[in-house]
């Protein structure tokens, strides 16, 4: 060790700092570390040594990664097939409108060519024509804004990680103490002093304990459920996990007890928390698309192919209209090309193609997911990213932390063992309760109000030799201090008081009345703090007889070694022989094998020099200043009993595990806790059965990583346990599972969990115990930290996915109807049935409410008993697509059919249509209406449309344009009605309306009422009717509309029946095949 005051290069045994990276400081002695880092702990670094080290290792802060720019985020939102199709369609429509506007520019009014109309009348003004592409642009912009907002939130996990870093440090430099040096200025080799409550500013080697004990809370980094004891002694294995590095203090952890002097070994990004920072950043760069987005992209690709085929087909069947030729000598000659007609049919092709696109789908999907977040919030699952709602529904593996998720994260006494009526006998009591609520649970077979002397002594020790406290906040009991000590105080409350004692005499309304009574009866005089060598804590108290006693609690084996006697049931003291000691150790082994943390209780009457101790002025007080004397003071003890404690499993978790098993979801427990404790909990909650051999299903993280066949081991059926897991282990497990095609939900609460939460398909953070880092890295936060909430959310996610399929089914089949209608119009050569503003109204307004209401479909009762769907399952199967086509085909035929019927028939299905006085024409005339000017003697009578009369005296051929207003209204009304009835078909994929009637979803009935109401609004309000170029319908005409529209329900009922028969025969074939195998 060097001499103070000399130049660092001249110090004896100390060389300038140039350690190999990484230097295993935990496996080296303090002297070795000081020599390696070129520093003496009593002097610290000199001012001249700091700059070169900082130049080499940088500032002690986490890197600021430059995230993608706003422009990059905006462009990323268009990396979606469906969005691209919409964008191209809107651009083409806008361009065509602009070009047509130029053609009639002298009119001062822009004429718009929409993507959805067969052709454009030059008489139509362009104001309404520009509405549709502009609305689509608006939808795309809103979609991009939402996407950018979500992406921007992803980087907050890194910012939250920086907040847990310490801002200042107490450092020794140049032999002087600097109490508030900015933590970012620390460099490797700095000497730092830590005290209770300090946040560790860097990774450091503990070189000296100032107090007798040192405890640090590092659960957020390692997953350990309790504060851990630290020492300055080296560990003997370089290749050890974080939990095993007991002589190291890690950045971001907190000192909860004691004080020490440390040597900084790693700073900034080289610390353990810096590694996590890098892992989070790496995970955020490799975010995969959600299963829903993948399916929608696949659907978009199929839609693109369909659009291409439609465009080509329409172009081919109409090529004869704009390209003609004559045959001369058997060869085509005299080609004639009409650019005007070519453009016209190009517009038709675009109209047909884009009619297949459900413009409202992105908005409805977002609305459905948002509604899903509200439902989940009611079940304590707070969704931070909308797509996660659907991702939950196809979860195949849940990787759960143990502490606080599967367990209550509240230590609880579950067994109490006391001495019997004579030597060689023990009494055992089962203790109920899983929280810090003293009123929860009871002690079985307990002598209430008749505590014997032995039980009284146990209660006294547990209450007085204890520094914990419990408070109640909003009906939630919270412990302050060590969780094990808090559990003992709850145990004392359940034990009650001796006969004849009344806690109410204290005049306190506190929670721990019994503990207060014991502390008042036996006031504490001095404390012998716990240390990791003797593994016990003692207090000197004034007994009610006037003398002093020593009360001790600690590790059972250590107390037995220092005990010479034992107290029996009646309070008598007998010698602790080997037989009695063996019996106690046997009970200890049984409790430990069940993963209980055991604490023993002992006391001492003969305190020698401390028998009259009364405070710091007493001569014996100097003995208490040196912790080395504690073991001798705590010798010659009288053993009285022991208690078994554990972090108990949540009561509802067992059923949740069963639900996961029924749903085909595997549960893997990945915890930082020790193997034995985790295995016991897994048996309790049903991850493993009670007698199951878990040798091939339970591994430490280090052992699992050593296997070459890790992926095969993860494929095992049933539960799996990885204990003593580090962040890198969790990430590797998630990566392997995702490579195997699994959809992974990962839970976590600590800083160490953040990288895996970010990498998982859905990261689930704890709302109560979770760090801000974990919450910001997650997709969902559990408000109650309860595993069963995840399972409930999975069920909700499945329901939401089914509902999304329902409205996608509804919207696509409806759009197919529009495509067929426009295609038939073009193919038959009849006047166009609907104008663009009408189709826009249907797609975005009329269809919107029913599609959104389908998101409220109730979940199937057996939704969590069905096998989970795979992430690569098709959104639309071949059979479903066939059903779409059949239903859509009928919708298109009915829409065009009623248009033709109005022109050609006086009545249809017994319903009279001649009341308005319109003129009938033949189908041949209707399909060749363009030749009307050449027809000799063609006349048309006036007819009534609402409250006006339409006449054609000037030009009878206008009957096929201005006169089609009634036929157009009928077509529009049939299309709206078919889509409303079709929404009832979408209630269930294969279930009949007789099994799942419309009123199971009252929101859908309300939505249909709203949509019909909106349609009546544009029909019967004159101003709106003029905008949409429609007229009111009579009662008979409405009867015709309903008669033509209703069969869509009957058609789909037949298709559903066929689907059920196919599914039944398929299931039977599978059963027979299974039997043969």
Structure, described:
- Helix 12 (361-377) runs antiparallel to helix 28 (787-828) and helix 31 (878-904) packs antiparallel against helix 37.
- The protein starts with 29 loop residues before the first helix and ends with a helix.
- The strands form eight sheets. Strands 14, 15, 18, 19, 20, 21, 22, 23 and 24 form a nine-stranded mixed β-sheet that branches. Strands 12-30-29-28-13-25-27-26 form an eight-stranded mixed β-sheet, sandwiched between helices.
- Residues 1-20 and 102-125 have low confidence and may be disordered.
- It has 37 helices and 34 strands.
- It folds into five domains: 30-62 and 165-286, Calcium-transporting ATPase, cytoplasmic transduction domain A; 313-356, no CATH class; 381-407 and 650-785, Rossmann fold; 412-501 and 509-646, Calcium-transporting ATPase, cytoplasmic domain N; 795-857 and 879-1075, Calcium-transporting ATPase, transmembrane domain (Up-down Bundle), CATH 1.20.1110.10.
- Helices cover 43% and strands 16% of the residues.
- It has 1077 residues and is α+β, with helices and mostly antiparallel strands.
- Keywords: ATP-binding, Calcium, Calcium transport, Hydrolase, Ion transport, Magnesium, Membrane, Metal-binding, Nucleotide-binding, Translocase, Transmembrane, Transmembrane helix, Transport.
- It is a multi-pass membrane protein.
- InterPro entries: ATPase_P-typ_cation-transptr_C, ATPase_P-typ_cation-transptr_N, ATPase_P-typ_cyto_dom_N, ATPase_P-typ_P_site, ATPase_P-typ_TM_dom_sf, ATPase_P-typ_transduc_dom_A_sf, ATPase_P-type_domA, HAD-like_sf.
């Amino acid at each position: 060790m060097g001499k103070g005051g000399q130049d660092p290069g001249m110090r004896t045994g100390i060389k300038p700092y140039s350690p190999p990276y990484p230097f295993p400081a935990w496996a080296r002695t303090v002297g070795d570390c000081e020599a390696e880092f070129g520093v003496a702990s009593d002097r610290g670094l000199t001012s001249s040594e700091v700059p070169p080290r900082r130049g080499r290792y940088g500032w002690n802060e986490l890197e600021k990664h430059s995230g993608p720019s706003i422009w990059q985020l905006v462009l990323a939102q268009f990396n979606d097939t469906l969005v691209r199709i919409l964008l191209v369609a809107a651009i083409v429509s806008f361009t065509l409108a602009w070009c047509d506007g130029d053609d009639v520019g002298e009119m001062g009014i822009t004429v718009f060519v929409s993507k959805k109309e067969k052709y454009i009348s030059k008489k139509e003004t362009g104001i309404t024509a520009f509405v549709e592409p502009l609305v689509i642009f608006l939808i795309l912009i809103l979609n991009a804004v939402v996407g950018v907002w979500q992406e921007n939130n992803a980087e907050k996990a890194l910012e939250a990680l920086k907040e847990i870093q310490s801002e200042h440090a107490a450092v020794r430099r140049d032999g002087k103490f600097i109490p508030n040096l900015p933590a970012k200025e620390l460099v490797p080799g700095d000497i730092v002093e830590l005290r209770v409550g300090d946040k560790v500013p860097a990774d450091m080697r503990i070189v000296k304990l100032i107090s007798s004990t040192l405890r640090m809370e590092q659960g957020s980094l390692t997953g350990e459920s309790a504060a851990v004891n630290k020492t300055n002694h080296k560990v003997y294995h370089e290749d050890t996990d974080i939990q095993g590095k007991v002589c190291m203090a890690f950045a971001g952890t907190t000192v909860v007890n004691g004080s020490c002097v440390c040597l900084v070994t790693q700073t900034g990004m080289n610390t353990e928390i810096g590694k996590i920072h890098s892992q989070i950043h790496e995970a955020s760069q490799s975010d995969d698309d959600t299963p829903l987005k993948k399916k929608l992209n696949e659907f978009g690709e199929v839609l693109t192919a369909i659009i291409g085929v439609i465009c080509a087909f329409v172009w081919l069947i109409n090529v004869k209209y704009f390209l003609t030729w004559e045959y001369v000598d058997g060869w085509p000659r005299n080609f004639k090309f009409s650019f005007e007609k070519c453009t016209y049919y190009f517009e038709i092709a675009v109209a047909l193609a884009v009619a297949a696109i459900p413009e409202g789908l992105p908005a409805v999907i977002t609305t459905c997911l948002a509604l899903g977040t509200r439902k989940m919030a009611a079940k304590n699952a707070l969704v931070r990213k909308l797509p996660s709602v659907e991702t939950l529904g196809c979860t195949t593996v849940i990787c759960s932390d143990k502490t606080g998720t599967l367990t209550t994260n509240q230590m609880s006494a579950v067994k109490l063992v006391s001495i019997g009526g004579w030597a060689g006998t023990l009494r055992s009591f089962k203790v109920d309760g899983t929280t810090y609520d003293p009123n929860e649970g009871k002690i079985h077979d307990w002598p209430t109000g008749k505590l014997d002397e032995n039980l009284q002594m146990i209660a006294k020790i547990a209450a007085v030799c204890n520094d914990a406290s419990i408070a109640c906040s909003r009906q939630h009991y919270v412990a302050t201090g060590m969780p094990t000590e808090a559990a003992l105080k709850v145990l004392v409350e359940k034990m009650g008081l001796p006969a004849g004692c009344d806690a109410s005499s204290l005049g306190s309304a506190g929670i721990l009345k019994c503990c207060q009574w014991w502390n008042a009866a036996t006031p504490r005089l001095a404390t012998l703090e716990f240390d990791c060598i003797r593994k016990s804590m003692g207090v000197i108290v004034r007994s009610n007889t006037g003398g002093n006693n020593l009360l001790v609690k600690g590790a059972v084996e250590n107390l037995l070694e220092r005990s010479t006697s034992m107290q029996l049931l009646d309070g008598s003291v007998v010698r602790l022989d080997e037989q009695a000691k063996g019996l106690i150790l046997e009970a200890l082994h049984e409790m430990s094998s069940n993963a209980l943390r055991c604490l023993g209780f002992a006391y001492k009457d003969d305190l020698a020099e401390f028998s009259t101790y009364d405070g710091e002025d007493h001569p014996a007080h100097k003995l208490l200043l040196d912790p080395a004397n504690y073991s001798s003071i705590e010798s010659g003890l009288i053993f009285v009993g022991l208690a078994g404690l554990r972090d108990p499993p949540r009561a509802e978790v067992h059923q949740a595990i069963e639900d996961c098993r029924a749903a085909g979801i595997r549960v893997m427990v990945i915890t930082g806790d020790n193997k034995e404790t985790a295995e016991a909990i897994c048996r309790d909650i049903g991850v493993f059965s009670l007698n199951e051999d878990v040798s091939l299903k339970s591994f430490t993280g280090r052992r699992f990583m050593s296997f070459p066949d890790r992926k095969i081991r993860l494929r095992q059926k049933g539960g799996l346990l990885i204990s003593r897991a580090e962040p890198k282990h969790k990430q590797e497990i998630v990566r392997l599972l995702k490579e195997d095609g699994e959809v992974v939900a990962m839970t976590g609460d600590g800083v160490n969990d953040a990288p895996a939460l970010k990498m998982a398909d859905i990261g689930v953070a704890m709302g109560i115990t979770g760090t801000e880092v974990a919450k910001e890295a997650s997709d969902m936060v559990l408000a109650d930290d309860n595993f069963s909430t995840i399972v409930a959310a999975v069920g909700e996610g499945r329901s939401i996915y089914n509902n999304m399929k329902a409205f996608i089914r509804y919207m696509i089949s409806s759009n197919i109807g529009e495509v067929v209608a426009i295609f038939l119009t073009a193919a038959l050569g009849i006047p166009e049935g609907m104008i663009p503003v009408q189709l826009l109204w249907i797609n975005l307004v009329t269809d919107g409410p029913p599609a959104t209401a389908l998101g409220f479909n109730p979940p199937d009762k057996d939704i969590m008993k069905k096998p989970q769907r795979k992430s690569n399952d098709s959104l639309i199967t071949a059979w479903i697509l066939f059903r779409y086509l059949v239903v859509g085909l009928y919708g298109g035929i009915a829409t065009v059919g009623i248009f033709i019927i109005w022109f050609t028939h006086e009545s249809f299905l017994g319903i009279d249509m001649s009341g308005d006085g319109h003129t009938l024409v033949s189908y041949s005339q209707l399909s060749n209406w363009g030749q009307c000017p050449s027809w000799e003697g063609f006349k048309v009578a006036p007819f009534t449309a609402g409250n006006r009369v339409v006449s054609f005296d000037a030009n009878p051929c206008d009957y096929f344009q201005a006169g089609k207003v009634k036929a157009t209204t009928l077509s529009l009304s049939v299309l709206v009605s078919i889509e409303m009835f079709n929404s009832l078909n979408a209630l269930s994929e294969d279930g009949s309306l007789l099994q799942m009637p419309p009123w199971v979803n009252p929101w859908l009935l309300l939505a249909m009422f709203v949509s019909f109401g909106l349609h009546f609004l544009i029909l019967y309000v004159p101003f709106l009717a003029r905008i949409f170029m429609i007229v009111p319908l009579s009662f008979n005409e409405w009867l015709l509309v309903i008669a033509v529209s209703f069969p869509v329900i009957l058609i789909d009922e037949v298709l559903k029946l066929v689907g059920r028969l196919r599914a039944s025969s398929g299931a039977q074939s599978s059963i027979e095949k299974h039997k043969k195998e």
